[in-house]
Amino acid sequence: MKNTLLLESITGEEISANLKPLDNIRGYEVRPGFYEVNGASALPGGVNFTLASHNATSCELVLFHRKSFRPFVSIPFPEHYRIGNVFSMIVFGLKIDEFEYAYCLDGPYDPEKGLIFDKSKYILDPYAKAVTGQSEWGVRRIYEPDCLYKSRVVRNNFDWGNCKQPLIPIKDNIIYELHVRGFTKDASSGVSHPGTFAGLMEKIPYLKELGINAVELMPIFEFDEMAGCREVEGRMLLDYWGYNPVCFFAPNTGYTAQLEYNQEGLELKTLIRALNENGIEVILDVVFNHTAEGNEQGPFFSFKGLDNNIYYMLTPDGYYYNFSGCGNTLNCNHPIVRQLILDCLRYWVINYRVDGFRFDLASILGRNEDAAPMSNPPLLESLAYDPILGSVDLIAEAWDAGGLYQVGSFPSWNRWSEWNGKYRDNMRSFLKGDDGYAAAAAQRIIGSPDLYPPEKRGSNASVNFLTCHDGFTLYDLYSYNSKHNEANGWNNTDGADDNRSWNCGQEGPSDSEEIRQLRFRMIKNACAVLMCSRGTPMFLAGDEFGNTQFGNNNSYCQDNEISWLDWTLAEENKEIHDFFRYMISFRREHGVIRDNTAPCSLGFPSMSIHSLKPWDDNFDWNSKMVGVMFAGIYPSGRDDILYIGINTFWNPLTVELPELSPDKYWIPAVDTSRGTAAVITREEILDENVYIMGPRSVLVCLVKDRA
């Protein structure tokens, strides 16, 4: 990064005086460039191009007029413009808005060894800051077989001013996972620029009012939504989610409201600055486990033509390992790939002020070049200790498609957090009333110390969630017993079968008021438990107002009303929305949920587990009630003691709360069995420390001082 800044600080006079052309190739004046500055960088009077390849024997820079598939010039790098494995050249006289570029590399062809160089292919710069031809979402593009993607040079002149990042400890975050396009694409969103970064920016007041302080954006690296597009029952299906990266350094220009030629990233940076100024962090969902090049039958446009046997995990006979489920697997712990990933993350932190990263199928990042899991993966360790990344959140999806499941055992260096898949599974099962999950549910609520011992992992390890993009929405979790993915065109064979869902008595939409009320209660139960659990809560955008995907639990290809948020539900289901907002505020107010504080005056432990009787944490197979108490003090010195009880039985249960000293008493703050009055606004004293919980309900009680 220091060298990039150096380039940007060079004046026109300096380049004339100190960087004079040394050669003329095909009519262009050139000289050796800056070898440590990867990618293409604008200079006063020219452009610096740098590319590295371990096995290439030669390299040519290929320049195109905008939207052309045939170059107007190809400039070979002279042999003496190569140092080690790095080609670097300054080309004078180029104006960045007048060309697009790619590379052609020659080298050995030996597929069994993974060497497949093809000089006829145009190779995308892996460090490109913008990819051409991607700006019009959902438009079929005309491609040439040997020219799939090209790059543009980008001006890096965004002024961040005095903008300060929120720097919120992850334990204090409320993470809101959203798809940039689907969040505002529906007309009901009411924004001026639906489906874009600008559209999301218009919703910042809504996010603040809800209480969100961290948004997790599903992939915004450049991807081609038209790759593999197909028609099913008259509807065009796309690569909507975007978990198929084309270029790691380039933002998806299909998410912009305006064209940004040579200023790609401007709208995204404006969005991030606005979110940060409003106290909201930005976490990017990043995909370093595979690329859009796929397997042997996939396209050839980037790493295959650069150093195929370095960037991808290959079998002994040169085929692609597929631990991603998407055709190939990035060879993350090769030193060259490791450096690329580190450079990329640093770039997003420095140039986009990103606050955190969620790593898709992160267990792949811990596999060796022979595909075996590593005990101390160098990539994960280097990210954990990198100084530039020192204040960002690192969140792992701690499994992969090859069967490596590391929830609770992901290498962390007390730095990595994890999507707690066991929280999702155990809590879904318990909340719907399954036998055998009470003890596990209690562990999940108190921060999963069985998975993340506090003395080793602190309080930043567990990201708790019941829903995410992958699976049912929260409303669908209590409206469908099974997936309904027929619209995806795979005869309902895709998507998870282990959903742990319950339709509350009728599959799908229901006119029954009794079923509607039960579903609303189950949603409130889930929200209350999530917000009263130790660890960082995360939920899917739209869950707070009962958004539905009509039973589709794998909407990766649905760029339509299945995936788009229906904002009319925010008013129709205002009861749910208001409850979410209250519980988010409640969590923020009670710091004892999030972390240990000084001991309370009653000498209660900071966390304790209870059943129908206080201090009894012995659960049997049929137990349907779990109680958890958090105890400590507010910063002001007052006691902060709360109790959450979960009754998953279909009948009422009488619960005894822990006995208090004579100068204190329990009051119920939340009781989901009360329907629209679930948030209790009038003080009700529980003199006998006893409460009758309604069927399938959650109770939250607080301790108050007697006057």
Automatic annotation (TrEMBL):
Gene Ontology biological process terms in this record: carbohydrate metabolic process
Pfam families recorded: Alpha-amylase, CBM_48
Highest taxon of source: Bacteria
MF terms (GO), sorted A to Z: hydrolase activity, hydrolyzing O-glycosyl compounds
InterPro entries: GH (IPR017853), GH13_cat_dom (IPR006047), Glyco_hydro_13_N (IPR004193), Glyco_hydro_b (IPR013780), Ig-like_fold (IPR013783), Ig_E-set (IPR014756)
Domain Glycosyl hydrolase family 13 catalytic residues, every copy: 177-587
Entry's family note: Belongs to the glycosyl hydrolase 13 family.
Annotated PANTHER family: GLYCOGEN DEBRANCHING ENZYME
The name this protein goes by in its record: Glycogen debranching enzyme
Biological source species: Eisenbergiella tayi
Phylogenetic lineage: Bacteria, Bacillati, Bacillota, Clostridia, Lachnospirales
